[in-house]
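Same chain as my last thread, 250 residues:
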Amino acid sequence: MARYSELSQKLMNLLRLRTLPVGIKLFERRSEIPKDFEMIEEECSVCQVIGIARYSEKAVAVVKENLTACPVGCFSLGMCVLPERLDDSVGKWGKTPEAGLKQVGDRMTIEKGRFEAMGVAPLEMISVAPDVVQVWALPSHMESFAYASVWDGGGKLELSTNGHGASCNEVLTVPYLTDKARLAIADQGDRWHGFATEEEMILGCSVAELERLAANLEESMQNIYYPRSYKPLQLTYNPRFSARTYQGTV
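reply #2:
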C-alpha cells in the first residue's frame, strides 16, 4: 500500500536504517491470510518469523500450531497456554523453574484464543493494514525517535525489559494493547533465532504513531542527522581530574 511504502521510504532516507521497518498483522482466522504471504510450515518462534521477514524482505505468515518453538512468544500473543512448570528453563531463563515462570507470567498478554495466525512483512510491501510496526535500529536512532516523540509536546518513550520477550511482547503485545510506542533491547531469543545483532534495539508502535514520529523526525533532523560526523578534538590530559586522584590513590 502506498501509505506504508512512503512511510518506510521516509524513515530509510532520514535514518539510513540497516534493515527495512516491518509491519506485523494478527489474524483472527487463518483464512484471512493474504495469498502473497509465504506460509512457514515448521515449528518456529515469533522472533524467527520477524527475522525472516526483515532479512529476506518478504511477507511471511504462520499459524498458531507452528508458533510453538518458544512459549514466551505464543503465550504473549494468546496463541498457547503457559506450562504449569518451566523445568527446561533452569540455567537458561533463571535459576529455578519458578524464576523462569515469573519472567513470563508477569507480562501483559493478548486474550487467549483471539488470534489464529500472524503475518510479518516489510512495511514498504505489506498488503494488509499492520497492527504494529517495528523499526530495528541502533541506540542513536532510538535517541532520535525519543527526541521526535517530545518534539510536538508528546510524551517520552518508555523501555522496560527483563531480557526475555522483546520483539514478541515488549514491542508487539504491549503497543498492540496500549496503543503506545515502546522501546526494547533485542533479547537473547532475537539474537539466537531472529538474527538480531548485538547492538540492535527495537521500536514498536502503531502506523499512526510512526507517522507522527516520522513527521517530527523530518522537522528535527536539522539538529540530528545521519551519518554523524565528529570534529577531532585536541585534548590535554590533566591529572587533577583523574579518577585515581579523586580516589586518593595518587
